[in-house]
């Protein structure tokens, strides 16, 4: 059924609270990785990507905080997210947005695979024609 206005507000506050909590955890992990990096240890590819993602999230947090701190500005957040879709830190994304991004990436990979298959088939036809 429909949710009440109070329930929508509570859900939205819980979403932001969880996002900040996840960002705090990511920041602590990234600080440990940075400490290891500064002391000469080599990071794995996964750790490097996580460190970069966390740093990017921290830079994205600055404009996002303006929307959270300024009263009634959170009503403009959906408009700005339509204009700048990557403005929101990754810990604040909903599952539907993550699935949408994965579908877009998968479609792009499928298109690329189809193109490569067609190219290989074309090259095979040419080679058969040249040798035949």
UniProtKB/TrEMBL annotation:
**Membrane-spanning residues:** 58-81
Name the record gives this protein: LETM1 protein
The answer to keyword Transmembrane applying to this record is: yes
Naturally occurring in which organism (per UniProt): Nothoprocta pentlandii
Encoding gene per record: Letm1_1
- Location(s), subcellular: Mitochondrion inner membrane
GO molecular function list: ribosome binding
Pfam families (alphabetical): LETM1_RBD
Residue ranges of domain Letm1 RBD in the record: 43-128
Xref: InterPro entries: LETM1-like_RBD (IPR033122), LETM1/MDM38-like (IPR044202)
Q: How does it sit in the membrane?
A: Single-pass membrane protein
Does this entry carry the keyword RNA-binding?
no
Which keywords annotate this record? Membrane, Mitochondrion, Mitochondrion inner membrane, Transmembrane, Transmembrane helix
Its GO biological process annotations read: intracellular monoatomic cation homeostasis
Q: Which GO terms describe its cellular component?
A: mitochondrial inner membrane
Predominant cellular place of this UniProt entry's protein: mitochondrion
Superkingdom assignment: Eukaryota
């Amino acid at each position: 059924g429909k949710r009440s206005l109070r329930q929508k507000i509570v859900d939205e506050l819980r979403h932001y609270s969880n996002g900040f909590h996840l960002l705090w955890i990511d920041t602590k992990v990234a600080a440990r990785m940075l400490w290891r990096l500064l002391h000469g240890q080599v990071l794995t590819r996964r750790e490097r990507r996580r460190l970069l993602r966390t740093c990017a999230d921290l830079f994205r947090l600055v404009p996002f905080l303006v929307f959270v701190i300024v009263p009634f500005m959170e009503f403009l957040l959906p408009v700005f997210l339509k204009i700048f879709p990557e403005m929101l830190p990754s810990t604040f994304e909903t599952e539907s947005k993550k699935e949408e991004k994965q579908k877009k990436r998968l479609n792009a990979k499928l298109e690329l695979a189809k193109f490569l298959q067609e190219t290989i088939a074309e090259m095979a036809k040419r080679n058969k024609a040249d040798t035949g």
